[in-house]
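Supplementary Methods. Inverse-folding protocol.

Structures were first reduced to a discrete structure-token string of length 191. This string, shown here, constituted the complete conditioning input.
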């Protein structure tokens, strides 16, 4: 039987797992969106993050995309509080120290316009006297809450975080909560 590869646009406030074993109130999981058995998320996105998630039953692909030694690029659209200056961007690009760890260098650019994204539900907090800006950040590692910790470390807390790409795979026309199987063309890439 061939392997399954699923691209999913994970909405805000959805756990990147199929079950929720917490004693809290019921939280939304992947099971609420994806009716395919035996596929698992490659990496994860925090509950308060959104965007592209790859699911598969191919353990080798899962390992190659998740293991840090393969340095697979992941691109994020990041709304931050305040307008980062050139110094903050340079620090993000060369690496910052978070929790006694220095991050790898990253591709970071300040976007001149807000990216076209579906509105988040619930919307981010709006503060009349504090402007926001959008960054595009491409990392080759994925530590716990890394993007949020990096932007906070340079003085610009993350308000909204959307993963837009994993390697060459992109969200494209997917909307929050939608998924699709990868095509043969999608699968023609080096991992």
């Amino acid at each position: 039987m061939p392997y399954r590869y699923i691209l999913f646009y994970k909405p805000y406030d959805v756990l990147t797992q199929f079950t929720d074993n917490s004693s809290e109130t019921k939280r939304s999981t992947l099971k609420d969106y994806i009716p395919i058995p035996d596929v698992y998320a490659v990496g994860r996105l925090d509950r308060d993050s959104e965007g592209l998630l790859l699911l598969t039953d191919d353990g080798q692909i899962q390992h190659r995309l998740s293991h840090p030694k393969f340095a697979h690029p992941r691109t994020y659209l990041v709304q931050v509080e305040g307008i980062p200056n050139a110094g903050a961007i340079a620090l993000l690009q060369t690496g910052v120290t978070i929790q006694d760890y220095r991050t790898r260098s990253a591709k970071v650019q300040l976007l001149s316009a807000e990216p076209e994204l579906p509105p988040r539900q619930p919307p981010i907090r709006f503060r009349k006297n504090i402007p926001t800006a959008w960054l595009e950040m491409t990392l080759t590692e994925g530590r716990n809450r890394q993007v949020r910790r990096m932007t906070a470390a340079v003085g610009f807390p993350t308000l909204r975080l959307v993963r837009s790409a994993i390697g060459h795979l992109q969200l494209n026309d997917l909307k929050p909560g939608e998924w699709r199987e990868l095509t043969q063309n999608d699968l023609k890439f080096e991992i």
